[in-house]
Amino acid sequence: MTESIPHSADILLVGINISTDSANNGALWSSQRSPWNVWKKAGIFKDYPDDLTSAVKCCNLEKYTNGFQVGFTDLVDIAETNSNRVKIENTASEELMKKIEDNKVKNVVLMGDRVIQTFFSGIHNDLCDKWKKMQKNKVSYGKHKKKYHPEYGFIGKMSINAHEVAIYGMPFPTTVPIKDKYKFYEKMVSEIKNNDSKFLY
Question: Could you give the CA distance from residue 104 to residue 160 in angstroms, rounded to a whole number?
């Protein structure tokens, strides 16, 4: 796994799997600039390094963020550019929760509906019920042919063996044709930076 999770990370960005190009580089999210542009516009990063590979590998992103410790991980340790081809094992949710607990992550960002669904497949609590409601509360987008996406954002906080963590559901930063995806991430950044009581542990 080419993940990068600083201890006590403020934000952990979770995807499905690493792309083939990023795997060849040896670091998550090191082959495309488009997701970094979304995260930069949202305020997670004020800039990003020219050499994404070495920065992500070494968790050397502090000078590029807006004061956050940012980590990256995936649900599946398979290199595949088309994530629709990737099978997510039943243990993925449990394994992610262990990483969250072991690294004392403060805010987890589940990127994409499939990642969110997988995470909650292994959980049966109020957060799972809230996500189901957010899924039903569809928001329309698209000028000509209307499409719909769930109500993304803060889902809730949960305890993993006494470790408290805030859980966010976000649109995937690439491929998903939702206008201004960065605004969902931007709202999250604002909530964390404003030290809302529900994000402080």
Answer: 10
Question: Is 51 in contact with 27 (CB distance < 8 Å)?
Answer: no
What per-residue confidence (pLDDT) applies to 145?
A: 59
Q: What is the 3-state secondary structure (H, E, C) of 116-176?
A: HHHHHHCCCCHHHHHHHHHHHCCEEECCCCCEEECCCEEEEEEEECCEEEEEEEECCCCCC
Beta partners for 160?
163
First CA to last CA across the chain, in angstroms? 29
Quote the pLDDT of residue 137.
Answer: 72
Between vectors from CA 169 to CA 152 and to CA 117, what angle results, nearest 5°? 110
Look at 62 and 40; give whichever has higher pLDDT. 40
Q: Which two tokens stand for residue 100?
A: 């969250």
Phi, psi angles (nearest 5°) of residue 140: -85, 150
Q: Which are the contacts of 53, defined by CB distance < 8 A and separation ≥ 6? A: 25, 26, 27, 30
